[in-house]
Design a protein that fits this description.
With 552 residues, the chain is of the alpha+beta class. The chain is globular, with a radius of gyration of 27 Å. The protein has a 20-stranded antiparallel β-sheet that branches. Strand 18 and strand 19 form a beta hairpin.
């Protein structure tokens, strides 16, 4: 099935978004659009809100840090494979056994829209990462065998990231023009967009995990993962500069776009004929378009009875994409020396510029040269490290936790530090209250609850609870009010929705939920790693280690 021209255009625009976005912004800055201020202001709002409210477009391979300290959650080995569940056996419900969702960015919040633009610019990271992620399990179970614990899982994962350089925001906010003695003038500027990037992939992960208690101080764990690639799209730049001179404008860029999806894409070198073919069979969307592997490994160390240290490296791997692959190398070398004719006075006098705009766009298109290859390529998974420390109080009834999480993406490092107060009055009931220090900007708290009723163990947790919400009119997002006054299927009227509530001082949202069947939940009152029902010698503090191995 072939897509129509509109579908082709939408697909192509989405793949070359970084180039197209800057070109559009460039024309706005030069005053070539009649509604310049309206368009520009809405682009700024769009970019700021994008990392907060678009759950299917941008993502960082996130994790729920709060889950690390919910001891009775069977799946916390996702964060450190050396951590063993309390239960002797667990079985996750499909999808609901573990579902995680996250959306956000690492630089700004909605509240930034109410601050001076210079303050916003100064608060941005060198590269702003817009992100979202979704994962859910298809199959997940684990069981204990003496000091060892095995787990098997099949998980669907979607990871998408968009990197936006600080210079792009500077261009959008201030443009290439400045007010000098009340007169708008162009200045000589160089904007570097080299760190702009796009990465998106969907894949199935089949994992086999193993952990073992070596002695009363050390435990180790590892997880081997087979990765079954479903789709990938990535774009990066080796060079991307926009030079805005007083009398001349230049764009120099070269980069690479890789794609491997169920859609078959054919593009001519002149970019004037784009053919996108959909699969005829729905099953084709679930065939492998790449294969790969990854590994997790972790350790825990208990130097004192009240202190546990941990460290883990997760998702260290790759996917080799080898079906429906397209690699496009593109280069743009464009210069325009007629900038001076597009002064603001010129525009305000009502002189038509549409013809010149069309001419510029045609020249920009002609300046782009491309080359295409159909070959295999490799993408890396996004590795993460977790380093933890936990102090136990009152025989682990209360504990204080600290978790440092670091993600490595596109030669950048993204880190968060989470502190946690954990209450465990019983092994069937856990509460974790967390406070994020870096990405949470000191404003966000998290909470997690894990409890077991009979054979059912469930948990729900989040790292960032939005404490401040603000109403944003849909009109500010160029969205018409949503009329829900006539809903025959549910037999009632919700009314007309003309605004949305968004977190005001939170730059991200995430949560995880899980429902599992558990057997043989371990109760360990003396906190020696041996369940009460299995211990074979008691009241032997001088021979605690020997007693432990007798019990094993």
């Amino acid at each position: 099935m072939e897509l129509n021209n509109a579908d082709n255009l939408m697909f192509f625009c989405s793949t070359i978004f970084p180039v197209g976005f800057v070109i559009v912004e460039l024309l706005i800055l030069l005053g070539l659009y009649n509604n310049m201020s309206f368009v520009k202001n809405n682009i700024i709002k769009f970019i700021f809100l994008l990392g907060l409210i678009v759950p299917t477009v941008f993502l960082q391979a996130q994790q729920i840090n709060n889950l690390y300290f919910i001891e009775n959650a069977p799946v916390r080995h996702y964060l450190n494979p050396a951590l063993q569940p309390l239960s002797g056996f667990y079985l996750g419900f499909p999808v609901l056994g573990y579902t995680q969702f996250g959306v956000g960015n690492n630089s700004f919040t909605v509240s930034a829209l109410a601050t001076p633009k210079l303050d916003v610019l100064n608060s941005l990271k060198p590269t702003t990462l817009l992100n979202t992620d979704l994962q859910f399990n298809i199959l997940d179970f684990g069981f204990r065998n003496k000091n060892a614990y095995w787990n098997v899982g099949i998980t669907e994962k979607i990871n998408i990231q968009v990197g936006l350089p600080e210079h792009l925001f500077e261009l959008m906010m201030f443009g290439a023009a400045r007010e000098v003695n009340g007169v708008t003038q162009l200045e000589n500027n160089i904007f570097d967009f080299k760190t702009m990037s796009l990465g998106a992939q969907a894949y199935t992960e089949a994992a086999l995990g193993y952990s073992r208690l070596l002695n009363d101080k050390w435990s180790i764990g590892t997880k081997l993962k087979f990765l079954y690639g479903l789709a990938n799209l990535s774009a990066s730049f080796e060079n991307f500069e926009l030079i805005t001179g007083i009398d001349e404008l230049k764009i120099n860029a070269n980069g690479t776009l890789n794609g491997s999806t169920p859609l078959k894409v054919e593009i001519t070198n002149a970019l004037d004929n784009i053919k996108v073919t959909k699969p005829n069979d729905v099953a084709d969307y679930f065939k492998p378009y790449g294969m790969g592997g990854a590994i997790d490994f972790g350790i825990t160390f208990k130097p004192y009875s009240f202190l546990t240290l941990g460290a883990a490296v997760n998702d260290l791997g790759f996917i080799r994409w080898n079906k429906n692959t397209n690699k496009m190398n593109f280069r743009m070398d464009y210069s325009f020396d007629g900038v001076y004719t597009f002064t603001y006075d010129y525009k305000l006098n009502g002189i038509k510029t549409e013809v010149k705009v069309d001419s510029i766009m045609n020249n920009i298109k002609k300046s782009i040269t491309t080359s295409f290859k159909v070959n295999t390529y490799t993408t890396n998974t996004i590795p993460k490290t977790n380093v933890s420390a936990e102090i136990e109080i009152l025989k682990n009834t209360i504990s204080l936790g600290l978790l440092s999480s670091t993600m490595f993406y596109n030669n950048n490092v993204y880190q968060d530090i989470t502190t946690s107060l954990n209450l465990r009055p019983a092994n069937w009931f856990n509460i974790a209250l967390s406070y994020s220090l870096l990405n949470g900007r000191g404003r966000n708290i998290g909470a997690g609850l894990g409890f077991r009723i009979g054979l059912i163990s469930t948990f729900i947790t989040t790292d960032y609870i939005p404490l401040n919400l603000t109403r944003i009119p849909l009109s500010a997002l160029n969205v018409n009010p949503i009329d829900l006054t006539n809903l025959p299927l549910i037999g009632k009227s919700i009314g007309v929705i003309d605004n949305v509530k968004l977190p005001y001082k939170t730059d991200r949202l995430n949560f995880a939920i899980g429902f599992n069947i558990v057997f043989g939940n371990k109760l360990d009152k003396d906190n020696d790693g041996i369940s009460n029902r299995r211990i074979k010698c008691k009241n032997t503090p001088k021979n605690a280690n020997r007693c432990r191995w007798l019990s094993n």
